[in-house]
Write a structure and sequence with these properties.
By secondary structure, the chain is mainly alpha-helical. 58% of the residues lie in helices and 4% in strands.
């Protein structure tokens, strides 16, 4: 029975140890220097993509404004205890805590908040490489790191002041700690697992699922391995597992108590249940999320770049996957053909499923505990994710596990291709697969105008510039600016002019005090919001001063309207409408 995934590749290997859960696996060989350099290079490259034109980034998503304002806890004499309770229904305080620290270093501003996501998103790349390497052995780490570095969805959300990129970092660390715990349950590993799961829970309310994945993986391992069923071993697993659960609860307890004193945790759970669908919505949500992931990766040239970059990761570790020191031209063509398989992996559901098929053919049930945990985690997240409202960012945990699975599957395929398959057959198979994938790409979204410059690298500062224009138009003596707008607008205008929030757009224009001006954000009105805003701007009490154009970036648009992937062309405009009280005697 095979005990470690670092011995899954063809070629001479040492005898295999027992895979019983009580057996301490042999130490993992150090990561080869070439693979370490490849992971480091992909981390640098991925960081450059995420920080691209940082001066032209800004807040545009609804939730970004909430997190940016919550980060001002750094100015409160109470510290984190004085954080804005408005945050509760959006997320736990993990990300705003980091934003507050960034404000302390760089000053309060949108770029400081976005820098947190850029930093955490970049750090996720080596974590993915580490997790894939410890799960599947040499070669897998470089491939997985390459995919993480150039993932369109991850790049997009790493360039926004949202909690998701930071959450993925801590969630994947928790998965790695879960692997270490299952390999050898003990007090220290239980504490580390509990801390990791607790931290993940502090960044997103579903962070506890990392602990559930560990428990399910332990149960599956015990059920399929009789040697792990003796009472002593089970006592170690569940006893130390209970300690991990207690530690996670202690880490999360301060926030739980904060929520209890500001509305109650039951109200929070009821709020989130309102976003849940049932079996009848599962298929529809799945289709939407597949299209969203493909749209966030859109552009055939970009996908080709991902395929080539991932192949570089494979080639960088070729020496440690059963190959020779030098690559002949024929073997290089064989390796390049593997890009067809890797193109599938740009999408969380399809790529992970394809990787699992490869692993199942290779191993069946005879896998290591680390492989079993990642497979169980991917299956659970693939099952649960479509039950929730189909926000594109919710697929990131599934996508992270997909990178790990595809890293292992790609390394396996490449090793076997080099050692056991002829050049002609391999080139024919993967070449045909690549052509098929490229032919099917238009089915997943709007691909017109694809170019090397990905839409996710475009500027996102139009709302900040629009708010500057609003401030320039306002008279100095204006007592109040009444607004119905995204929270980022409040963030940008706070301190510039007295702002009064209005819950409904109709209430915004239904009355006038002859001095207060009005700002209406068409993005608040959903699809077709600009036309509806123009109708509201014809109020008898107000006159339109200016229609200020702004654009929503693609990740924000997918949250506003999940049907975006099937629309052509895609409308990203979201103008602001600045109104002033109509002067007496002026005809409409």
């Amino acid at each position: 029975m095979e005990g470690r995934a670092d011995r899954i590749y063809p070629g001479p290997r040492r005898p295999l140890e027992s895979s019983a859960m009580s057996t301490d696996p042999s130490p993992m060989p150090p990561i080869p220097r070439r693979e370490t350099l490849a992971i480091a290079a992909f981390t640098v490259f991925g960081g450059l993509l995420r920080v691209w034109s940082i001066g032209h980034l800004g807040l545009v998503h609804f939730d970004e404004g909430i997190y940016a304002m919550a980060g001002t806890w750094i100015l409160s004499p109470r510290g984190l205890a004085g954080i804005d309770p408005t945050l509760i229904s959006y997320a736990p305080p993990g990300f705003p805590s980091l934003v507050g620290l960034a404000y302390g270093l760089f000053g309060i501003g949108d770029i400081a908040a976005i820098l947190v996501s850029i930093a955490m998103g970049t750090l996720t790349i080596p974590v993915v490489g580490w997790l894939a390497r410890r799960t599947f052995g040499p070669g897998a780490g470089a491939v997985a790191a390459a995919m993480a570095a150039m993932s369109g969805p991850h790049i997009g959300f790493s360039r926004m002041a949202l909690t998701d990129a930071s959450f993925l970092f801590f969630w994947l660390v928790a998965i790695g700690m879960g692997q270490r715990f299952l390999e050898r349950p003990g007090a220290l590993r239980a504490v580390l697992l509990g801390i990791a799961v607790g931290l993940a829970q502090l960044f997103k309310y579903n962070g506890w699922l990392a602990g559930v994945i560990v428990a399910l993986s332990a149960s599956a391992w015990i059920a399929t391995h009789p040697e792990a069923r003796n009472p002593r071993e089970q006592a170690r697993i569940w006893g130390w597992g209970a300690l991990a659960a207690v530690v996670a609860a202690v880490v999360y307890l301060p926030w739980f108590r904060f929520v209890e004193t500001h509305g109650g945790y039951s109200a929070l759970l009821a709020h989130h249940r309102s976003y849940m669908g049932g079996p009848s919505t599962w298929i529809g949500h799945l289709r939407i999320q597949i299209r969203e992931d493909a749209l966030l990766m859109r552009g055939r040239q970009w996908m080709g770049l991902v395929g080539v970059g991932t192949m570089i990761g494979v080639l960088a570790s070729f020496r440690w996957m059963g190959g020779s020191r030098r690559l002949s031209a024929s073997r290089f063509l064989e390796a390049l053909g593997l890009a067809g398989f890797l193109l599938f992996a740009i999408e969380a559901f399809v790529g992970g499923a394809a990787a699992l098929v490869v692993l199942a053919i290779r191993f069946g049930w005879n896998v290591s505990r680390g492989v079993a945990l990642v497979a169980v985690g991917w299956g659970l997240m693939a099952l649960l994710t479509p039950f929730y409202h189909p926000y594109a960012r919710l697929t990131l945990p599934l996508l992270g596990l997909t990178w790990v699975l595809v890293g292992g599957a790609a390394a396996i395929l490449f090793a076997y291709a080099v050692e056991r398959v002829g050049v002609g057959r391999l080139t024919f198979f993967f070449g045909g697969q690549t052509i098929l994938v490229l032919a099917l790409l238009p089915e997943f979204g709007n691909w017109q105008g694809a170019s090397w410059t990905h839409p996710l690298l475009e500027s996102s500062d139009s709302l900040r510039l629009a708010c500057r224009s609003v401030a320039a138009e306002l008279p100095r003596d204006v007592p109040t600016l009444r607004i119905h707008a995204r929270p980022p607008v409040t963030f940008y205008l706070s301190g510039v002019v007295p702002v009064a929030l209005q819950a409904t757009p109709e209430g915004l224009v239904s009355r006038s005090d002859r001095r207060s001006w009005v700002l209406l954000d068409s993005a608040m009105l959903g699809p077709g919001g600009a036309e509806r805003a123009r109708q509201l701007a014809r109020s008898p009490s107000f006159e339109l001063v200016r229609e200020i154009p702004t654009r929503m970036n693609l990740p924000t648009l997918l949250d506003v309207d999940p049907s975006t992937p099937i629309q052509s062309p895609i409308d990203v405009s979201a103008p602001l409408f600045l109104l002033r009280p109509k002067r007496p005697g002026v005809a409409r």
